[in-house]
Amino acid sequence: MPATTTSTLRSAAAVLALACGLPGAASAQAATAVVADPAATVYTQGEYRAVSQEPGSRDSFAHIKVAPGVKIPFSTLTYRVRDAALLKGLQPGTRVEFRAERVEGENVLVAIRPRPQ
């Protein structure tokens, strides 16, 4: 299997484990970062699907399909977006690289950018 596919699958598995709150998710995410490059920030690849907003809330929610080239059921995850400027210019279907963190029990999108072609 090509290294990029293995890396993408490993990142996707870490994100899914983190999103589901599985034990050891933090260590899985840390292991992914160590494999790539200890000094580099790890971005997960996905496909931006949609944005929604909870009634009465100023926060938005981004819906991102993780590892869009892989047939994984339930792989569209929802992330709270505290800064709407992160999503500016993104259209549904855009391939992206993103970072999310677990903040107060929720998955929060902290960085997102279109993926270079």
Secondary-structure blueprint of this entry?
Elements: H1 3-20, H2 25-36, E1 44-53, E2 60-66, E3 76-81, E4 95-103, E5 106-114
Antiparallel strand pairs: 1-2, 1-4, 2-3, 4-5
Helix pairs in contact: 1-2
Task: Please sum up the structure shown.
With 117 residues, the protein is of the alpha+beta class. It has two helices and five strands. 19% of the residues are buried.
Task: Describe this structure as you would to a colleague.
A 5-stranded antiparallel β-sheet has the order 3-2-1-4-5. The protein is globular, with a radius of gyration of 14 Å. The chain has one domain (3-114): Beta Barrel (OB fold (Dihydrolipoamide Acetyltransferase, E2P)). Helix content is 26%, strand content 35%. The chain contains 2 helices and 5 strands. The two termini are 21 Å apart. It has helices spanning 3-20, 25-36; strands at 44-53, 60-66, 76-81, 95-103, 106-114. It is an alpha+beta fold and 117 residues long. The model is unreliable at 22-34 (pLDDT under 50). Helix 1 (3-20) runs antiparallel to helix 2. Pfam families: CusF_Ec. InterPro entries: CusF_Ec (IPR021647), CusF_sf (IPR042230). Keywords: Signal. This is Cu/Ag efflux protein CusF. Residues 1-30 form the signal peptide.
Q: What is the CATH H-level superfamily? A: RNA polymerase II/Efflux pump adaptor protein, barrel-sandwich hybrid domain
**CATH fold assignment:** OB fold (Dihydrolipoamide Acetyltransferase, E2P)
| Total tally of structural domains | 1
Molecular shape:
globular
SSE string: HHEEEEE
Portion of residues in beta strands equals 35-45%
Pfam families: CusF_Ec (PF11604)
InterPro entries: CusF_Ec (IPR021647), CusF_sf (IPR042230)
Signal peptide: 1-30
Keywords: Signal
